[in-house]
Amino acid sequence: EFAEIKREIQDDTLDSDEFVKMTEKLEKYKEEIQRLEERAKSSTQIESVFKKAARERTDKLLEVFNAYKREIQKINMTQNELEISIEFKGDRENFKTHMKSDFRGSGISDLKYQLLCDTFSDYVELIEDWILHDGKKIKRIISSSEYVRLDVKLKEKYPELLKNQVPNKVEIYYHKKLLRHHSIGQRASALILFILMQSDNDIILIDQPEDDLDNKIIYDEVITAITKKKQEIQFIFATHNANIPVLGDSERIFVVEYQDTTIDIAQGNIDCKSTHKQIVDIMEGGEDAFNKRQLIYTSWKNI
User: Fold this and answer.
1) For position 15, what pLDDT does the model report?
2) Are strands 253-259 and 262-268 parallel, antiparallel or unpaired?
3) Distance in angstroms (rounded) separating the CA atoms of residues 28 and 14
4) What would the mean pLDDT of 192-201 be, rounded to a whole number?
5) H/E element holding 111?
6) How many CA atoms lie within 13 A of 215 on its CB side?
7) Mean pLDDT computed over 206-219
8) What is the Cα–Cα distance from 147 to 137, expressed in whole angstroms?
9) In the predicted model, what is the mean pLDDT of residues 187-195?
10) pLDDT above 50 (res 300)
11) Within 10 A of 26 (CB to CB), how many other CB atoms are there?
């Protein structure tokens, strides 16, 4: 049509009134072309700004993720019982749950929500497709009517949705089995072990770690961890279980007894006869703990 107008202007038979009309029409087309060119330029700038902001956001999230990953590697290297894994933006179930809540009423099925979660790593990618590419990827997953309803939801909520992030997925394994599949006692053992292996701490204070733990776990893992780290960390335990101070070779023991309205405190060590007697008389498994200690020492001497 633009070329046709130019031909009409160049026609010698065109009268002056018609020429004025055609000139005005041509100017309008020129203005429209300029407007479209400016819009295209603006769209390119918006796309550039959006992608730059998305990259910067991802870089910041990766900084946090890598900091966690370094600490996890330290924990994994200090012992063999616990193993922790972390996956960047890996909690897809969390993302799916939030998506179903944020887009409630759009008529999208659970299967399609799953496909959206598999296609987009987070809301930033989904909104980028919606704004910059007219929902090209989204439309491959959901129907046109569902997209119309989703479009309304996105227009209402996209500023808030952009602030949301998909959490990193952290999995904890204890003896090669997911922690959540273990018993309460085994979870408690894993937690104690995790705390004891925190090398950045100068002091670790724990109240009654024997709760939910049996003596075998205390000796096999807790005492082993204490023995390994006690040269670097000051451990302080409040406990009723004799295995911890006796087999853990405690340097100082405070025996606390409540008598009527007063609290009596005595101190010593595992080689002090009076403290030895108090441990046997008061603490759970005191005599067995000393017998086991003696057996261990005898075994060492015979090596």
Assistant:
1) 59
2) antiparallel
3) 19
4) 78
5) helix 110-119
6) 13
7) 78
8) 11
9) 83
10) no
11) 15
CA distance 95 to 117: 7
Dihedral of the CA atoms 72, 78, 84, 86 (nearest 10)?
Answer: 20
- According to DSSP, residue 181 is labeled G
**In this structure, what token pair is assigned to residue 168?**
């990193």
Asked whether residue 57 carries a pLDDT value surpassing 70, the answer given is yes
> Given this model, what pLDDT does residue 151 score?
94
Straight-line distance from the first to the last Cα atom of the chain, in angstroms, rounded to the nearest whole number: 102
Spell out a b/e string for 169-207, using b for 16 or more CB atoms within 10 Å of the CB, else e: eeebbbeeeebeebeeebbbbbbbbbebbeeeeeebebe
Separation of CA 251 from chain center? 39
Rounded Cα distance, 73 and 75, in Å: 5
Higher pLDDT, 106 or 49: 106
256: its two tokens: 């606390």
| Chain-centroid distance, C-alpha 261 | 49
- Could you tell me what percent of the chain has a pLDDT over 90? 34
Helix axis angle for 2-10 and 16-78, nearest 10°, is: 150
DSSP string, 4-54: HHHHHHH-TT--HHHHHHHHHHHHHHHHHHHHHHHHHHHHHHHHHHHHHHH
